[in-house]
Amino acid sequence: MANDSRYTFKNVLLETGFEYDGEEVVKTKTALFCVEIDGGKIKAITPNDPNKDAIDAKGWLMLPAFKDMHAHLDKMLYGLPWQAVSAKRKTVKDQIAYEQKMIPEWLKTSVERTEKMIDFLQSNGTHYIRSHFNIDPTSGFDSLKHLETALKKKEKTVGVELVAFPQHGVFYANTAPLLKEVVKMNIDFIGGVDPYSIDGSIEKPMDLITQLAIDNNKGIDIHLHEVGETGVKTIEYLINKANENPALRGKTFVSHAFTLGHLSALETERMAARLAEAGVGIVSSVPFGDTIMPIPLLRKHGVEVLVGNDNIQDHWNTFGPGHMLQKTKLIAGLYGYSSEWALSRTLGFATRYVLPLDDKGNQQWPKAGNDADLVFLEASCSAEVVVRVSPVKSLVHKGNIVF
């Protein structure tokens, strides 16, 4: 269905407020409505008319569609035969050597596999993806070109922002010349990975990355797995750059940032405050085990914390569920978000903080004029969606009905 079409859903379940017992939220109120779509936007929300000639939403709960803010669409092995992670590759440099060997083979089927991966993410309610793509001497610009080919076929049903990702290091694999070219192309962010352990310096690769971003009006999204002093210093480097260059505020992110999960409470508070002040965000795949990220503390200080699946089926890891609700459930379990109110807030990690109700229970979404980016689920409310990972029944992107 084209996004300039006009149609209406009936029997749409929407959240309307909270029910209280004293000061405690004990229930989420809902009611049925008709929702009119026009030109990719929500045109109107009106009282339900079950007899109206409209698309029947069957009483499903309508929520903002989900956003996966950290993916690698260009090099997932999804669509190839199952392959577990090899124990022989123990370091990032081991993985780089393996990629340099395998990328020419993977590129042969990358367009088709990217399309399958997008289909999979969409089936779980995701309509928007921040995808990194390899830029390195082995791939050249082919990873980007193949990704663009797949995305062109999906342009009516998925939104994307692209990050040029020098997975093999900026100088370790002589990727700098390619970065200087790709940053002029139709991409949104420039990335990097573990500057000290891969390139042997924090300043040298980060100086290049940040200057390219500033000169070309791009954002920054750096993969940082390093813990300890080099991890802290890399984050502090980005904070300082964002403070020096206001154009980077709100456009600079550190993906993973595992070092934040290994600091003292006082150090974590200090770092969270500095990140918030500089407008530097954190993108997490919500790891656990010996690294539980301080997400509640970061949010308390106002740091934007984005969430993504990262690895789904690839040579790095195979535990990414490809489902943003699985991530919200993990967050709720890890941090003890179990009340009706807390669970309803947790949904925001899947929607980039677009929620039907504000913290006081006032209805704030959907409103006329909002983009028609919608997911329908078999559930009674947001809190149930998070805990039960409720079945996704339909997805709409910019008014286009995906399924």
From TrEMBL:
Domain of life per record: Bacteria
One Gene Ontology term of the molecular function aspect: hydrolase activity, acting on carbon-nitrogen (but not peptide) bonds, in cyclic amidines
Boundaries of every Amidohydrolase domain copy: 173-403
InterPro entries linked to this entry: Amidohydro_3 (IPR013108), Metal-dep_hydrolase_composite (IPR011059), Metal_Hydrolase (IPR032466), Metallo-hydrolase_Enzymes (IPR052349)
NCBIfam families: PRK06846.1 (NF005312)
Protein name per the record: Deaminase
Organism of derivation: Chitinophaga flava
